[in-house]
Amino acid sequence: MTAEEMGKVSKRLRATFAIASVAFVAVLAVSPVKDYFQEWKRHEKDYVRYAQTRPDTKHLLADFHSGIDQIWLPDMKVVDRCTTCHQGITQASLGDSSVPQPFRAHPVIPHPVKEWGCVVCHRGQGPATEVAEAHETTLAWEQPILPTKYIQASCGSCHRGDIPQTPQLNRGRQLLSELNCAGCHRMQEIQRPAMLGPDLSNVGNKVTREWIYKWLKEPHIVVDASGNTVVDGYQTEEEPRMPQFRLTDQEITALSAYLSSLKSHPFESYKFDPRVLASLEKRPDLAELGQERFRQMFCTTCHSLAVTRGDETKLIGGDIGPELTKVASKVNPDWLITWLRDPQSYLSHALMPRYQWSDEDLYKVTQYINEKLTDPDLLSNVPQLETPTPEDIQLGQRLFLEKGCGSCHVIEGVSPQKDFGPDLSSLGGKNVSQLEFGSAKFPRNIVSYIQAKITDPLSVNTAARMPQYRLTPADLDAITTALLSMTGNPSSSGLERLIVPRPRPGFRAAGAFGEVYERYKCYVCHRFNGYGGTLAPDLSFEGSRARRQWTIDFMKNPQTLRPTLIFRMPQFNMTDQEAATIADYLGMASQSQFVNVAGGNLKQFAPEMAAMGKQLYEVKYQCQACHTIGSSGGYVGPNLSNAGNWLNASWIEQWLKNPQALVPGAIEPRRTFTSEEIQALTAYVLTLKQSGQPKAAISGAAVTGGAK
Amino acid sequence: MNWRALILVFAISAMATLQACREKAAIATTNPLLKAYDVEQDANDPQRVIPLNYQQAQGKRVFNNTCVWCHAEATPAGPSNRSNVTPTPPLFTDGETLNPLTDEFLQNTITLGGSAMGKSTMMPPWGQTISEDEIRSVIAYIRAVAQPPYQPTARPASQYPVK
User: Fold this and answer.
1) Which tens digits make up the pLDDT trace of A297-306?
2) How far apart are CA A261 and CA A202, in angstroms?
3) How far, in Å, CA of B114 to CA of A557, rounded?
4) A364, A459, A495, A704: which could form a disulfide with A490 (CB 3.0–4.6 Å)?
5) Would the pLDDT of A503 be above 70?
6) What is the Cα–Cα distance from A205 to A394, expressed in whole angstroms?
7) Are β-strands A628-629 and A632-633 bridged in parallel, bridged antiparallel, or unpaired?
8) Preceding peptide of A503 cis, ω within 30°
9) Does the interface ipTM go beyond 0.85?
10) B20 occurs within a structural domain
11) Tens of pLDDT along B59-82?
12) A114 CA: distance to closest CA in chain B (Å)
């Protein structure tokens, strides 16, 4: 190659090199340009421009930082850059809904946004700096923002115990435990109870094969007289605990054969006193007498009955025990008597108290139930079922285990499959790619996934064994929230320190009181030392409040004290001995540190003090707005007509000083009485006495079925 | 030789545009109720559902524990205590009565009681029973559910810059 030729080549090469260099510089330049046009920089500029239109520009701009803003919570493994764009989030003056996003201020919450950032509650991708990546599911960033409707789930991933600020989460957790979800699924913080559904070892003695067939075919779904399908015979607000399983008629026939053959403990039918039978048997109003007794005993505090008033049929009564409108069409009459006399002999974990029955009462009430709480048409569409064949029984037993019945119901000698359903203890933190959607039609996000799984399990997986629950939209959202809160075990020991534990108190009394406490199941409704139900008043400090004789009288014949409580205490027909045991125990053990019952001297309350107290009560403080004395006054607080016999003087004094110190959460407002006023009001309340509550008034209050 | 240069230019431009071609997820338009901490059924219009934010939702909780007995038609126990109180207390949704009252007035009435503000003595003071923040949240709640709706009075901006 000559020099000239080389010159030619190099010229061409040089041209190529020049073009390549220019192109290379252009490619390099893309990077700073791209950086310049970043989404977050645009939002920062917009914010500065927006701040200039506000009256407090100077203040807003003083707090403005350009550049990526980051909150780092190493304990929670959270990196949060949201405040890069959400510049105004802590500016109180930008709280109005007319302020455009992303600049609007956050409403006031207990965890300051400046310290906690956003993703702790709202989820999403904290480190992302693009709108779509931070908020939505993209290929690489999988955690989308949690809709605020379910945000209480985030509270629940650290606050494992129920807190009053999160009603939806608490309701969801309550439903998960009530509906026995823990029977099949492992869940965070919701333990599998020892016994979930009723023990079926002896169910053949309780109900007929026809009833079991009906129950399995349409659990709680019964057609009423007009042909409308309603829940449990009547429209209820509560979801029945037994869900509907997808069973063929053949499977139901086999299961009913198997279950009706279970008769582990035969019982003898109870022999009534012949004198009682002779005096009652012929009475035409026997059912009415039984109904009256049923109401007087306040069975409806725990059990509900359908009541039709006008065109409306409503369930009235409590939900601690089962609904009883058609119970006589369900159970064997002999079983009913045995159950009423001693519920725990049939089902050791039954919550039903063991009442003291007289033969007369027992006969009247069972006759009422058998005659009135029945529906002859209930089993009319059940096919003719023959005596169970051994093949049917064998198939039924296999189905019992295959369908997962054994996860909730115990049968002696049958061991259920362990971990029947999938583990849900870390469901709430899963990415979309970890969920199995199959050919589902709904949007691919975790909320839709959870809700579809509950409302229609087959829409996700055609082989699902999960039964059909029918929840109201509010309950469905509550359960979704509770499941979303289960984000698994903390990923670091630092987070474990932040998790607020769930209290698990337990209180079992010992000795003579322990027996009475277990017999009448006091803890189902009342709370003792932080353990027990919330239907009735907390009795932890009852000994400081009530006098011994009053407690005994109340146990023998409970009266209406607090009109704001919906349900009344049942009449247990307690013996004097039992009532005294309760009064003595409460007097000894249920004492508040603030009240010195023995210390008071009643002589200090002179009549003129009581007169002054009456003035204070009626004129200065107008307590009658909430309390009733005699027949006038409000019914927010307890009726004070008999307060002189009921309350201890030192309790009244302490109560007036600070009600919430004695009963946390009491409605009565704490006020600033002077000590003279407290003395005078106490003196007045102690003069309020009633001699012997007339019995008729009590039964009169009972007639409306306990729900007043 | 030309085709080589062409390939080069094409490759470079392809690299440059590749970044811009990334698929961006569209931001879904969501139901406004999905953005609410809690919701409240309008007492007068069952079709209308009012979204509540965190503060308003806490106000609803405090209201239903403390105030509901005298300031609502229906209470958790069934009937209301309103008829036993004279003068009859306003309903919590009564915008005509409550909207003209300022937040400060309501805060003081709830904290100090009716008698301190020249109103009924039957309204007790709650200042020692529920916290200042809780009272503020109750006011936020009744503002949210007021019928006719509450319009905050536009306050003129301060003429002095806030430091």
Assistant:
1) 888 888 888 7
2) 9
3) 39
4) A495
5) no
6) 19
7) antiparallel
8) no
9) no
10) no
11) 999 999 899 989 988 887 777 888
12) 17
Pick the more confident residue, A4 or A145. Answer: A145
Distance of alpha carbon A476 from the chain centroid: 13
What distance in Å separates the CA atoms of residue A662 and residue A665, rounded to the nearest whole number? 9
Q: Which of residues 118-147 of A touch B (CB under 8 A)?
A: 131-132, 135-139, 147
User: Which chain A residues are closer than 8 Å to B78 by Cβ?
Assistant: 566, 707-708
- Do A480 and A582 share a domain, yes or no? no
Distance from CA of A397 to the nearest CA of B (A): 46
Q: CB-based contact (8 Å) between A266 and chain B?
A: no
Q: What is the pLDDT of residue B60?
A: 93
As a whole number, the mean pLDDT across chain A is: 82
Query: Which ranges of A107-178 does DSSP label H, i.e. alpha helix?
Result: 113-116, 119-122, 131-135, 152-158, 167-178
With CA atoms as reference, the chain A residue closest to B63 would be A667
Which domain range does residue A22 map to? Answer: 1-37
Counting every residue, how long is chain A? 708
A117-131, A491-505, A565-579, A603-617: which has the minimum mean pLDDT?
A491-505
Residue B96 belongs to domain with CATH number: 1.10.760.10
Q: Looking at the domain assignment, is residue A275 inside a domain?
A: yes
What is the pLDDT at residue B19? 52
Inter-helix orientation angle A548-556/A576-589, to 10°: 140
Residue B30: list chain A partners with CB under 8 A. 147
Chain B residues whose CB is inside 8 A of the A636 CB are 69-70, 81
Q: Give residues 75 to 134 of B whose Cβ lies within 8 Å of A.
A: 75-78, 81, 84-85, 121-122, 124-126, 128-129, 133
Measure in Å the smallest separation between the Cα of A623 and chain B Cα atoms: 7
Compare all CA atoms of chain B with the CA of A659 and give the residue at the minimum distance: B129
Phi/psi region, residue A624 (left: phi>0; alpha: psi -120 to 50; beta: rest), is: alpha
Helices (H), A524-575: 542-545, 548-556
CA distance B96 to chain A (A): 23
Contact B35 A19 (CB under 8 A): no
Indicate the DSSP class of residue A352: -
Say whether residue A351 is in contact with chain B using an 8 A CB cutoff.
Answer: no
A490: confidence class by pLDDT, cuts 50, 70, 90: low
Q: Give how many domains chain B has, as a whole number.
A: 1
Within 10 A of A643 (CB to CB), how many other CB atoms are there? 21
B26: pLDDT strictly greater than 90: no
Written as one letter, the residue type at A271 is K
Q: How far apart are CA A672 and CA A651, in angstroms?
A: 17
User: How many domains are there within chain A?
Assistant: 5
A473 touching B, CB under 8 A? no
